[in-house]
UniProtKB/TrEMBL annotation:
The lineage of its organism: Bacteria, Pseudomonadati, Bacteroidota, Chitinophagia, Chitinophagales. Pfam families: Peptidase_S24, SLFN-g3_helicase. InterPro entries: LexA-like, LexA/Signal_pep-like_sf, P-loop_NTPase, Peptidase_S24_S26A/B/C, SLFN_3-like_DNA/RNA_helicase. Residues 593-687 form the Peptidase S24/S26A/S26B/S26C domain. This is DUF2075 domain-containing protein. Residues 187-557 form the Schlafen group 3-like DNA/RNA helicase domain. It comes from the Bacteria.
Length: 736
């Protein structure tokens, strides 16, 4: 089914003339719900605003009088006969979230009131309508990135335009009440990796930098009204609060600074390292990843900055730590903390946070939800027991629906799987513990070799950059460490557990080997073996909570590998369950037919026929499918901007209507040789038409356009008699 006929997008200059135009606009009558996008044009950095209303004339008239919105140049009216209030609220929220993640606009919208809610036909109809709306905005160059590209971006994942969970909303209300209460100075929000601490921090920062005039009170639910009332009280008390977001880890701080540059009302200077606090005092300081605040131990090149800051703030450099700096330089502070992500002796000791939490001037809340890994609480609990050696002996191998958790006995197979996931899913990376020295590090006087990790015949290199390694060009060919991934999301993580960690069969417990641990700043001065073990265990647990869709493990120590294999499915074994696709396949419910077309993302493929035997291919939950859908494998690099080589793609059978601008699967059939089958290709479709002698329009030329990073691929032009041999088989919907 095509969803392009279920909506229309009507552009108009945003000025007084648009009100006259709306007199003839069919959806302006009868209070019909409409979504609209106001935007600037012709500037490098554009502002925009998204809204929905049942009274478009009154709403746009109001915006024309607004000091900021009246400066916007164009309005896009998005409407449809099947739109209802629930649908337009949902489409509006999705437009706001994805426009924020697209990076082309600074949104004038407030971030309070966005909701994920269920309603009739949300998945089977309106989610598809939104995808079609976005595809049209992409074709019209209103937006720059596909939904999939945005889903994988940090700008989207840490955007302040998020629908908060019940846990997060509860914590937000507690924070706001505590900021208003003079009896409290500190608020500690605890939560494990992936519990949404960073999202809450960024959301709160944006919320307190949004003019209350921009709040859409009409769309607020009961909890939103509570939050809005608290924000109004806080703004009355602190009209222009001086705030800072402190992030100790350099790499992640750079990423959050990029996010702040793209959010209206925020700027990168608001995100600072701990030493940046010495320059100012603040009304409110938020600290993300507070467990990575440092004390004066094993600081390497940071010793100088630490000492200068300690002296500037009046502390004894030998006795203070960065938590002291936060407490001194802020009237109020909010710390997002997880004691189980402390990975170095330089981290502020847990007892300092315990002392703070026990203070009568501190309020504490805990985030229980798991937002990152699809394995959920079951997976988090399991790996905690696994790494602590607490898995009951008779426990069967873990099976987690919709999450790939596998142990590999062959490292090359794991690396190959990660690279395949990078090609099909993106954001798949190989990680490791500190069981190998960093000999390839740039800047050393003599680099004896260009690799660091050697396991059998396999040679690998540590991360070549420290900042934003995950998004660096060479990341897929390198190995990252804890410091390159803490705070980040991956789709898949392949983790190498080195020989610094092992298993004692006699005692039945995990052990660590100090001599095989090569993070000097991670072990120097740590005399307590239990403390070092805690750091190493925390490193691996944190890395095992990076992968949203799956985690792969390779274990160097034989005894530890044997211990893990008792409880974790092993890749390649006959009883291994593909946990991402383990449910029973139900045709056109959770799977579609996979046709062996070998569609060529290049020129037309060799002539082939559709296989008579049906193979069913699983489709993830949340993707609406019907009997018009099918899948096939697309090979070649000519569509690699949208479709990776070898990807299995979902298509919708073509049943009529315009194809212009769509990515299509087409067949070129020689009707005189039909028994040999058809030749297939996937390209973006464009056509030129002319009016024939009989008055009817007919194709003059069809252009099949590649979307490739390789300039080798050229347009395929069909003219004259060739046009009769072309048949559009399906419309591309997504990579599976």
């Amino acid at each position: 089914m095509s969803f392009t006929t279920e909506f229309s997008i009507c552009p108009h200059r945003f000025n007084a003339e648009v009100i006259d135009f709306l007199g003839d606009y069919p959806f302006a009558e009868n209070r019909w719900p409409v979504v609209y996008l106001l935007k600037e044009t012709g500037k490098k950095k554009l502002s925009a605003y998204v809204g929905e209303t049942v009274d478009i004339i009154t709403r746009l008239t109001t915006h024309l009088s607004h000091p900021d919105k009246c400066k916007l140049h164009e309005v896009l009216l998005i409407s449809g006969n099947k739109f209802n209030k629930s649908a337009t609220l949902d489409i509006e929220a999705n437009c706001i979230k994805y426009l924020s993640g697209d990076g082309g606009y600074k949104l004038l919208n407030a971030n309070l009131g966005l909701r994920d809610h269920d309603y009739y036909q949300k998945e089977e109809l309106y989610s598809n309508i939104f995808r079609s709306i976005w595809e049209k905005l992409l074709r019209e160059k209103v937006v720059k990135h596909t939904l999939r590209q945005i889903d994988n971006s940090d700008l989207f994942k840490y955007s302040p335009y998020k629908s908060l969970s019940e846990d997060q909303t509860k914590s937000l209300i507690l924070i706001l009440k505590s900021l208003l209460d003079d009896n409290y100075k500190s608020i500690v929000i605890e939560g494990g990796a992936g519990s949404g601490k960073t999202v809450l921090a960024v959301f709160l920062f944006k919320l307190l930098h949004t003019p209350t005039d921009d709040f859409n009170f009409g769309a607020f639910g009961p909890e939103d009204m509570v939050v809005a009332d608290l924000v109004l009280q806080l703004k009355s008390k602190l009209p222009n609060p001086k705030m800072a977001l402190v992030i100790a880890v350099d790499s992640f701080r750079s990423t959050v600074q990029k996010i702040f540059r793209n959010v209206e009302g925020l700027n990168a200077a608001m995100v600072v390292g701990p030493a940046g606090l010495r320059k100012n005092t603040y009304d409110i300081v938020l600290v993300d990843e507070a467990h990575r605040l440092r004390q004066r131990k094993n600081l390497g090149s940071y010793f100088g900055v630490f000492d200068i800051t300690s002296e500037a703030l009046g502390f004894d450099k030998e006795k203070n730590h960065e938590l002291d700096w936060v407490l001194k330089q802020s009237a109020k502070n909010i710390l997002f903390y997880d004691e189980f992500q402390s990975v170095r002796p330089s981290d502020v000791p847990q007892k300092a946070f315990d002392s703070l939490k026990n203070s009568v001037t501190t309020k504490t809340e805990y985030l229980y939800s798991q937002f990152r890994v699809k394995g959920g609480a079951k997976y988090v609990k399991f790996i905690t027991c696994l790494l602590n050696g607490d898995v009951p002996r008779n426990t069967e191998k873990i099976k987690i629906k919709n999450y790939e958790f596998l142990l590999f006995h062959d490292l090359q197979q794991m690396i190959d799987q990660i690279r395949e996931k990078e090609r099909t899913e993106q954001l798949a990376r190989t990680l490791a513990g500190f069981a190998w020295p960093w000999v390839s590090k740039k800047g050393k006087k003599k680099v004896k070799r260009d690799f660091d990790i050697e396991i059998g015949t396999i040679k690998l290199k540590w991360n070549s950059v420290n900042k934003d390694w995950i998004n660096s060009p060479d990341a897929i060919r390198e190995v990252g460490c804890i410091h390159t991934v803490q705070g980040y999301d991956l789709n898949y993580a392949g983790i190498i557990l080195g020989n610094e960690i092992g298993y004692d069969r006699e005692r039945g417990e995990i052990i660590i080997r100090r001599e095989n641990y090569f993070d000097k700043n991670g072990k120097n001065g740590v005399k307590n073996t239990a403390q070092l073990k805690s750091f190493i265990i925390n490193i691996y647990k944190t890395m095992m909570l990076r992968g949203i869709k799956g985690t792969y493990l390779y274990v160097c120590d034989e005894a530890l590998r044997e211990y893990f294999s008792k409880y974790i499915p092993v890749f390649g074994e006959s009883d291994t369950i593909d946990t991402a696709k383990e449910s029973v396949l139900k045709p056109y419910v959770n799977c579609v037919p996979l046709y062996d077309l070998s569609a060529a993302a290049g020129s037309f493929s060799e002539q082939q026929r559709v296989s008579a035997e049906t193979i069913w291919y699983p489709v993830e939950d949340g993707i609406a499918i019907s009997k018009d859908h099918f899948a096939c494998k697309v090979v070649g690099e000519s569509m690699n901007k949208e479709i990776p080589n070898g990807a299995i793609c979902l298509f919708r059978k073509y049943s009529g209507g315009t194809r212009n601008g769509e990515i299509v699967l087409v067949a070129l059939t020689d009707r005189q040789d039909v028994d040999f089958g058809s030749s297939y290709t996937v390209k973006k479709y464009f056509s030129k038409k002319k009016q024939g002698d009989d008055g009817y329009w007919e194709h003059e030329q069809i252009i099949l356009k590649p979307l490739s990073t390789n300039p080798f691929y050229k347009n395929i032009l069909l003219e004259g008699n060739e046009l009769t041999l072309l048949e559009v088989i399906g419309i591309f919907e997504k990579v599976l």
